[in-house]
Amino acid sequence: MPTYSHGGDVWAYPHPVLDFSANLHPLGMPPAVAEAARAAVPLAIHYPDPLCRELRRAIAARDGVSEDQILCGAGAADLIVRLCLALRPRKALVTAPTFSEYEQALSLVGCAVGHHLLRPEDQFDLTDAILPEITRGTDLVFLCTPNNPTGRLIPQTFLRKVLLRCEDAGALLVVDECFLELAGDEAMTPFLRNHPSLILLRAFTKTYAMPGLRLGYLLTANMSLLEAVAAAGQPWSVSTVAQSAGMAACRCADWPRRGREILEKERPVLLAGLRAMGFTVWEGSANYLLFRAAGDKTLKERLEGQNILIRSCANYPGLGPDYYRTAVRTAPDNERLLRALKEVL
What we know:
About 35% of the residues lie in helices and about 15% in strands. With about 350 residues, the protein is of the alpha/beta class. The strands form 3 sheets. A 7-stranded mixed β-sheet has the order 2-8-7-6-5-3-4, with helices on both faces.
């Protein structure tokens, strides 16, 4: 039986649980998106549009990019794997800690993976120390902003510096922006046109709380690369239901802002509550917080007894079994988490 090391596995429990292990929009899925998905079910009698034509038009209008710069897939994770299958990199660089799917996908193609260690004393921020590690022979660099699980943003000015370093070294830079809309920071889309070595990853998963529909997309001005990534996956990777839901999400222009307003109010409250219990918490800009319960390696399991899930970060390189990540949800949910923590402590 394969193992599962990500958050959001509510199916492992025979009863309802309050899930803080998956980081989604605090208000959940927009009603219009759910309705569009339901209305599209009868159309599933046909194969889905293999080119996601209408969806790509909607994304292009929403993100201010060209339709031909967009490749849709079954979530960002699907596109990460396809990217590695298409490129077959020999040497890649990832930060530690970060989203584990980058290294897993690279390992599938036998790529040698280097780790740039982010240090807690630096607030897990990326610094100039990464630049000399991007050398000739580095084929691919993965960065995530805000980073998962630290929640720390990479300033756009620094991303531009890394991009230029990658270009000098002959490397491609992949910037994962899947959490960016809920953090309210600047996207890298303006740099696509003049930088064919830049690849952006985005998903509807977090911003519109639709992980079960599996919908993400890749942006690049490198047409040969985009075609190669498209050829590395099956032609019907995005279902008709997911495409309809995505088009509806593109019309929900106010949804990201509403999420940010809640997060900006609730994140400091949850952070203060965690610190009041003695946890070390890193201030982030995302819809989740990284914290350390020094020496406590069973906190996740004890909270499961309260029907609450948080994410253990034991499998993140650079962290350990007493590091945890929690989503930031609505005030009642966050209060319930803090009460449960007080009980199990």
